[in-house]
Amino acid sequence: MTLALATRMVSSEILKLRKKRSTMLWGLFLGGGAMFIYYAYAALDHASDPAHHGPAGGALGFARGLQGLAILIGPLAAAMIGTESGAGDIAAGVFRDLVATGRSRIALLLARIPAALLLTFACLAVGLAVAVVASFALPDGSATPHLGLIASGVGWVLLADAIVCVIALGLGSLAGSRAITLTALIGWELVLSPQLLQSASLGSARQVLLDGALVRIEPHPLPSGTPHLSMSIALVVGVMTLWPLVIGALGAWRTVTRDA
Amino acid sequence: MTIDRAENPALAIETVGLSKRFGNRLAVDAVNLTVQRGVVYGLLGHNGAGKTTLIRMLLGLTPRSAGAIHLLGLPIPKRRGVALARVGALVEEPKFHPHLTGRENLRIVADVRGLEARPRIGPALERVGLGNRADDRVKHYSMGMRQRLGVARALLADPELLILDEPSNGLDPAGIVEFRQLIRSFADEEGRTVFLSSHQLSEVEKVCDGAAILDRGRVLEHGTIDELAGARGRELTIGCDDPAAAMAALDGHVARARRSNGVLRVTLEGDPRPSAAAVNSRLVEAGVNVWHLQLERPTLEQRFLQITSTVGAAT
Q: Is the domain of B188 the same as that of B270?
């Protein structure tokens, strides 16, 4: 397959996703709109009670925004877009028509990954822009984030949500159902994973959790929120690699073996 | 199982002992099928006879349990990618992304097919009569329009072989006639091979050159439409002045004879079976005055029901 053809396939995948209004609107809301609401709310809090609520902006406010985008809200946007990309063709019934072209099923799957990532990043870019603007516009005397923190923060958010996006895509391809995939991912992201991370009785077993690894490399660690686990960087890399790799491989296996 | 055999590029489709098993149920049972290039060939069968499963195996949408497949002379699945690049297909009810327009849906498949496919989108849409609705979202399309869009999608391959599963489903009577002409033109004007499945017997009879009758996963009979319809003898209606003399003259060529409404109805036999002209000559030579002679060919529908009901009774 030539690069030109691969580019065409990716652009078609982008077309499918960006024209899916409900997914894109939710992705933009979760990736960008929610950040705007968060900073607006934090600014009001600070204005009404500065003694108890710190400034919405500044380096700390920026770090809080980053954590929301990397661990809480951003992953939901990534999960929605990844799920739509992974399960969309199967759910719409057009997977068989794509397979009937004779194109390799793996090629069909691989074309989805850059498309889903690009649109996830586009949604997150709005949220990141809101966080940067808010951190400089609303510092109220506190230190503003330096360029290194902004760069590493943006990289961290994109990495974290890219991993979730690929996991969602793999799970969507595996399950073939948007509803099942999204329910499983939202349940995991919002309920199960935080509960397991907070459960001290699990000890070092918590190190296999993706959020634990992501928080371990957080560019500006926050005093509260997700617990910081003691993990080696090698283990962090291993966890962040294995989650998308294993679930992506399962999705690929199902894509190849599925009756189209 | 793969059967080694020389590739036969003269055939559009060839299956040998093709079978598909779902658990204990044999959906397709050792089907041997050959379809020559440039013809319209029908696969006839009741709902659930195994037509769609057979088509899905041809296209590699579901793996076969046993047997061999060659499409356009190429073994499947070994050279599936090369073969299917020259095959267009419409399988079951055509499905699309409802939030995209007809043109966008075709673009998605065109981009998967190859760089040369995008320029075919416009002509394909025009060909099926959807040029003026191409930029409407598919969710606003009727069933008939989706069916047409499905055929347009199949044309993006500029296919040598079109595999169409129940292509006239959802079309109104005018649409069916138009569709029939379209399918014939694929073979007659463009030299493409069309393999279509249908449970609408009259449709197959009108549009196909040949057909196979599939029942409970097995091919019961195959051949040209004439062969299939007339496979068990031809009935001739003879109006003459002396039926008894006519019977005597045709002795040895008649399997069955009866008189009704003043005419003689005879079922001819023999190999080769005598033509109507030969029967006429024989009667005239025997001194019988013939005032009416008509060859009655059973319809494919009668023949289909006869074959499938025979199998049903035997099982």
A: no
User: Is the sign of the CA dihedral A222, A223, A224, A225 positive or negative?
Assistant: positive
Residue A82 contacts residue A117 (beta carbons within 8 Å): no
Contacts of B56 in chain A (CB under 8 A): 96, 259-260
d(CA A67, CA B210): 67
How far A26 CA lies from chain B's nearest CA (Å)?
A: 16
Q: Which residues of A touch B109 (CB under 8 A)?
A: 97-98, 101
Can you tell me the distance from the alpha carbon of A7 to that of A110, in angstroms, rounded to the nearest whole number?
11
Inter-chain CB proximity B95 and A94 less than 8 Å: yes
**CB-based contact (8 Å) between B232 and chain A?**
no
pLDDT at B232: 53
User: What would the pLDDT profile of A81-120 be if each residue is shown by its tens digit?
Assistant: 999 999 999 999 999 999 999 999 999 999 999 999 999 9
- Rounded Cα gap, residues B258 and A55, in angstroms: 105
The two structure tokens encoding residue B53: 């499963």
Place of tokens 């991370």: A197
Q: How far is B113 from chain A (nearest CA, A)?
A: 6
Half-sphere exposure of B219 (CA within 13 A, CB side): 20
The domain tally of chain B equals 2
Give me the residues of chain A with pLDDT under 70, please.
223-226
For the purposes of burial, counting CB atoms within 10 Å of the CB of B239, is it exposed (0-12), middle (13-18) or buried (19 or more)? Answer: middle
Q: Which residue of B has its CA nearest to A259?
A: B62
Q: Do A101 and B99 touch (CB under 8 A)?
A: no
Residue B163 and residue B275 in one domain? no
Burial B177-216 (b: 16+ CB within 10 A, else e): ebbbebbbebbeeeebbbbbbbbbbebbbebbbbbbbbbb
Mutate to test the interface with A, among B55, B91, B97 (most CBs of A within 10 A): B97
Q: Which of A68, A76, A39 is nearest to A167 (CA)?
A: A76
pLDDT digits 0-9 by tens, B181-224: 999 999 999 999 999 998 888 888 889 999 999 999 999 989 88
Instruction: Please tell me if residue A40 touches chain B, with a CB cutoff of 8 Å.
Output: no
Q: Do B99 and A20 touch (CB under 8 A)?
A: yes
- Beta-carbon contacts of A208 under 8 Å, excluding residues fewer than 6 positions away, are A239
Query: Mind telling me how many Å the CA of A254 is from chain B's nearest CA?
Result: 13
ipTM score of complex? 0.88
Does residue B261 lie in a domain region?
A: yes
What's B59's domain CATH number? Answer: 3.40.50.300
